[in-house]
Fold each of these.
Amino acid sequence: MTAERVDARVGTELGPYRIEAVIGRGGMGVVYLAEQTNLGRNVALKVLPSGLAEDADFRARFERESRMAAAIEHPNILPIYEAGEVDGVLFIAMRYVRGTDLETRLRAGPMAPAEAARIIGQVAAALDAAHAAGLVHRDVKPANVLMATADDDGGDHAYLADFGLTKQRDSQTGLTRTGSFMGTLDYMAPEQIEAKPVDGRADQYALACVAYRCLTGDPPYARETDAAVLMAHVRDTPPSAHRARPELPDAIDAVLARALAKDPEARYPRCVAFATDLRHALAATTDPDRASGFAPGAGPPSGAPAIAESPLQPTQATDRGRLIGTGAIVGAVVLAAGFFLVAGLGGSPPSTSSTLPLGAAGSSPHASSSPAESAAVSASLSATERLSVFPNAAEESLLSLLPATLADDCDRGSYEPVAGGGRIEGSSFSGKKAPIASLACRPLVTTGANEVLVRQFSSGSGLVGSGAFTIGGAVSVIVFTHKVPPGDCSVSKRANGRFQLGGEDQGAVVCYVDTATGDAILAWGYDTLGILVQATNQRGDPTALYDFFLKNARFIAP
């Protein structure tokens, strides 16, 4: 076994970045864990090969497309903080996300249908946002999908990475200036292989290949040689995922076949349209436990390989990645690992409080229902019904309580148990409970928040572990985990207290700025209604986030 080669850049500085370790290597450079010393935060720093800065055409494209990618505000696109040049070296500084990537996850085998649909849906939304901004990714593959798991919530949050070297939508083909392709063989669209015009539909094709692998464990066109894989992409009929994994519903094949059509005109108009049909088709699975390969929430099957969690271990890519066009295929595989933290939820109500009166907000376009009716409908749903077409009855009831400006941007949220009471066991809380309705909303960051998770809990049983679950306890776990002091969020970016509606106390509220990610986070709960809300501003603007809270906290009448 050979020792890891020493990288000469480790321990040095590149502009304001102090390089601490290698995260990953690929054909387009090296990704390092670095500290941005002027802000005191960790970043993933991609350093491109030195010769590229001397190519005037490449340098101009790099600077232009990096600026375009950095301007995209979307919760599922890995944020780019800066792109530039120092001493003749091109670099991109990105958010550092601790977790794993989809490539590593899939080495443990295919995913549960609901899990696959959730991840594909998030990546699809990221791609549509990029396409709307005029960018085509061209290298959508599992290794470029980062999966960050919230400590207490347990739900995976997907980031699509490597947007610094994308392609403008109006470029003529999938070729670079030298006649070489960007892309990875197992996920490459026919038009890229044939050097035809490329647009966002090529990314949709690649996403469908990723979806097929998530569901079956293998890429759609697994062949013995690279040449055979190329020809299969161009000529062969899309394979049947149902035949490869019989417990999947028949309906999934038609959805995949459309997204994998050889003619881009025959594919879906948008990636989200494909992801929506995929989710609906997978909801037809008659035996969720069998289709998932293991019981929901039980983790991988016994004997499955563990998923690496260390951000300092570069993933060895297993998908083919060599340069095509002139006869060879060059991989653009650069793995970015990093850090994304959603505050833990649980505990007991704060002992010290600040009372915050709030104003009114807008009404919802959804059918109205009272909080009590929402809880009654939600409590009657089985676990299988909660994984049906969105929105189910419980989610529709919860949607009806949201203002119109927020409800229109919501999808199904996580149903993982949340800590909210009981005794502390080590660093976690013993009392956990799964929500009866859960919404993940992604409003524009100009509203003050770009991620909002709304969950409702029943007042009855359903606890995991010991100890009583309360909404106040859920907020208090954030206070405990992040050591947030008592105070008033209207004047402090780090405080916890209580808030009022109509002169009546409603529940606990906590705000803080995550020191690792720079995100501003604000969470609040409605004690008697069993509703917990957590909002995030990825720009790290606590003032804008508090304004969002003032405008939206009154979506449930006191």
Amino acid sequence: MKDDRPLVSVVLPTYNRASLLRRSIDSVLEQTWQDFELIVVDDGSTDGTRETVAGTPDPRVRYVARESNGGVAAARNTGVRAATGRYLAFHDSDDEWLPEKLARQVQALQPLDETCMSVCGVRRTFPAAGGAGAGGLTYPRSASDWNKGLDWSGVLASGVAYTQSWLVPRRAVVDAGGFDERLCIWDDWDLLIRLSRRLPIRTLPEPLVISERGADSLSADPQRFVRDMPVILEKHGAEAKQRPPLLAELHFLHALQLCKVVRVREARAALWRCLKLAPTHAPAWRLLMRTLLGSAHIRRRFGAPAAQGEDHALGWALVLTVLDRVLQRLVPPVPSRIAYVSFPDYTDSAFYVFRHALRTRNGLEHVWLVRDASARRRIERDFAQAVAEVGTTGHTLRVEQRASLAGYWSFLRSRYVFHTHGAYRFRDTAWRRDVVCLWHGMPIKCVGLLNRITPNPYPTFGTMHLATSAFFRDIVAAAFAADTAVVKLCSLPRCDALLHESARQTPEMQVRERLAVAPDQRLVLWLPTYRAEGPQSQGSRPRSFLDDVPSGTVEAMERAAAATGSVVLAKLHPRDPLNDHAPPWPFERLRLLRANAWTALDLQLYDLIAASDALISDVSSVLIDYSITRGPIGILGFDPATYTRELTFPFEKLTATGRFDLLGDARAVERFLQRVRDGGPTDGAPTFLYDRFDLPGAEQVLREVHL
């Protein structure tokens, strides 16, 4: 039976380029090899793209429209799914193919058994530099560039990553997982690396593609490059380490793009990473010298606008970094001294490490660095209580203001440091000291260097980081620019309170008494997060967590709580405006716990969580923590379609585990509270989220640093 499907499916994604699209389409239709279909994927255009494609009478041209703009990787994946051909070729709306492009590549792949792929040369033109044809570069620069072999490490220098140059079996692209939709401009490079592990590449060095790099080209946007690089290092950094020159070049390219957006401190850090791998990298040294002249010089050199808060001279940050490195070598640490830094003050895993050390070790000097001096009395009280409970001896305590010379001196002389966000942002190395980054928990939302919406220019430093599973180890390493070897698989110290009564400062019954929750009532804790980057509420009222909740859900929760004998306690985030501008609260079973009332309760958050029968949140890391218990977990107030902060993994991967209930409407809320009332154990944490550990997290952390 004759197969009417074309041999080649050409995928052409486009977004608001109707004026250029006609030329690109014509260059495909004019191919000397005619056994193809052309799939034009409209990625949410608003400029007449549909009409331009409709004006093409050729029946081989198919128009596929996406509902909204999802980026070039998503558009290419849409085209791959729509394709019917055995082979895929990719085109861009501002590029042209020479007429024999497909014919030459089909010939190179004979006998067409789908066991290899073909790439051809590319001519890059830069008309924006002075009119069409003003200048350009040809990849490969010479045939010998490709004759050396095209394993994945050759991709970066060879120019082979241009998708326009590929002819690849469709099955291979699908099996490799397609394009990574988190990436803006490195999606082709990333996919080609994965393809090169699966099948050989046959090369045609002569340029059969003309690629125009206009001012609006994705590759011309350094912001996109900067956002992509942490993902690339997360996925391929471990393998790149086996080829130090390649990894050094990646760090250099990252630094170069950081300079173009005037993120000078991050650029310096990337250049130091480059030079550690390649000490003779002359361009890196030259660029590093430029960064030492400050942001004003970099802005003039690259013609970029100044970034808010950047230094305009050598900068105090660099001076303090150098001074800190020198002092670490000159000032010996006290062998028994531990410094704790936690934000907000005196909470989270740092507290549970502190409490565990007091109860299980002797003769340690404890230093708390705080932002709020009012925390001193509470720390001193808890110190005395913990020591008295078990009778350990020889401990001392000092509480210092973090932003003071006394605080820094105590920190400098500490042999061990446990922190959540870093103590001093100029600290980027450690000499004869252990610095443990406890963070807040396993990141569902992109944090650190992975956060492309509100990036943190100061990577949180640690000689040791924690991850609850191998899955999260790679994410944590990428977020904090750490080697995976220093990311230890470990239960989080704050989670000790969920599994071990001895780790809790306040017993469960006392927690419930302070909250006025009767012994026969089910306590459901609702922990909504605060979203600085989300949409605002309607009208003049400040946006609160209630704006993320579907209409009617709160009323249904009140009714269901009354029917099931439950109390739902919504603990407000400290920044939620309902703390200060709350209207009269009409509910009895659904209670608000405002920030000032929470302070007055004098409880640790994880003691409260441990006393709860069920948990509700949105995309907080507390979901991962609570999954190690047997209590039901509901996800409420999260809409993947409108949430602006990127996630570290697809939301569907979380919900597919079956451990979490989606509370998307009133009926789902009612079913959830009925489950809470009925009791009975639920499945524990999926192991890809949280491994099983024999030791409490605080004990494991102390042993890792030989305490």
